[in-house]
Amino acid sequence: xxxxxxxTGGFGGLTRRATLRxxxxxxxxxxxxxxxxxxxxxxxxxSTGVPDGFHYEIETDDxxxxxxxxxxxxxxxxxxxxxxxxxxxxxG
Amino acid sequence: MTLCHVPYMxxxxxxxxxxxxxxxxxxxxVPPHLLDHLSRSGDPALYEPARRTLERDALQRTxxxxxTVRMAAGTGAGPAAEETAGEPAEKKPRRTIFDAGQSEQxxxxxxxxxxxxxxxxxxxxxxxxxxxxxFDLYLSVFSRYSIDDAGMPLDATVHYGRDYGNAFWxxxxxxxxxxxxxxxRDFTLPVDVIGHELTHGVTQHTANLAxxxxxxxxxxxxxxxxxxLIKQYGLGQTADAADWLIGxxxxxxxxxxxxxxxxxxxxxxxxxxxxxxxxxPATMEDYVHTGSDNGGVHINSxxxxxxxxxxxxxxxxxxxxxxxxxxxxxLTSGSLSPDADFAAFAGxxxxxxxxxxxxxxxxxxxxxxSWSLVGVTPADA
Lengths: 92, 381
Hints:
The structure holds two protein chains of two kinds. Helices cover 29% and strands 34% of the residues of chain A. By secondary structure, chain A is α+β, with helices and mostly antiparallel strands. A five-stranded antiparallel beta sheet of chain A has the order 4-3-1-2-5, covered by helices on one side. In chain A, helix 1 (28-41) packs across helix 2. The longest helix of chain A is centred in the middle third of the chain and has 14 residues, at 28-41. Chain A is globular and about 40 Å long. Chain A starts with a strand and ends with a strand. Chain B is an alpha/beta fold. Chain B has twelve helices and nine strands. Chain B has helices at residues 11-15, 32-39, 44-64, 79-84, 122-142, 191-204, 213-235, 292-296, 302-315, 322-332, 342-357, 362-373; strands at 95-99, 109-113, 154-158, 167-169, 174-176, 245-246, 261-262, 271-272, 276-277. Chain B has a five-stranded mixed beta sheet with strand order 2-1-3-5-4, with helices on one face. At the A-B interface, loops of A face strand 4, helix 6, helix 7 and helix 8 of B.
């Protein structure tokens, strides 16, 4: 499975994108479960969010979902953290 | 890579502003968070004058019955507080700082309340001092009593999230991350960032500009304008002496850039191989149409930011006096609709300038000129 997180907004208004491929990873099943939860708990459309809050778009093979700080669920927060720390990063 | 400019943390430059002697106190232009920092230094040469300055200011403030909190960072509920007991309540801040402990749980653990001594955590003390500096500008210059003009408590949470490179206003409190260590340092470092977040609260309680498109960019710009004024006020700077930078101590040394935004020259704050180039326009000609970032609220804010800079430098002197007053009158006039665009806001500033300084006066002319320079035609207010 491929999981891409795009983060926009924030105080700086900078965009950060990272992709993590779960194939062959020992934690692939755990990541897939996190992704399913994050998708189920997210929104179909982006929200306005709070001033200077980060906005996240999470894309997986199963679909795309949106969420925003400071109201991330545990699964969304864990997944976003994992993808940014361990995935291939593309800032810009 | 450019070394970040770190004016507030440079103890030596602060120290040299006064003669070095046993009874030295720091000049009052030293920002309160620097005093706070110095007062906890291990070097007596640094902490003694800082503590004396904090104590001296607390005493003078009580004597004069003035409402400023600019230097309140290190004052406790000692003799000075007892002295005022039983007298009519002064308009004072009610600050509480919480520590999220790198979690995303709000508000976190309470670590410092109003009047308490500084703690061993610089982020906590910086947030406390920054809230005080912001409260002070709004009260002393604009006679505004806290965020809601009714004495609302000022709450902030520091150490939010893990490697969290951001700060935000959640509708009730300011929230600050420690930075990601790659691009951003601790978000409590620049006082203009603290003032920026608190001003989101002021806007929420006044014009309540919708956080999307041009009204969102105006919301952002107002936070930058008053954030910068809080910094300039603390430093006692005139418009031509100010740097007009937003977040000038936020970037790590790895980043090629001086700040996140420049009100003086939008689009020039950074140019980095990882972050790219500062995308802010200075004029309508370069307005950025995007769906990202709530319609580019942090991008197109460069246009009203630059209009304010132009006005402040045209009028000269302290930016918080006439230029800031016109912007504050506009924000609180009740004439702005939540979906106001740049033209509507510009029209309201023209009306505010005329209302306070006279129709056809130098202030109104300067407002018209500043909007013309950024390509915005004021709508009839």
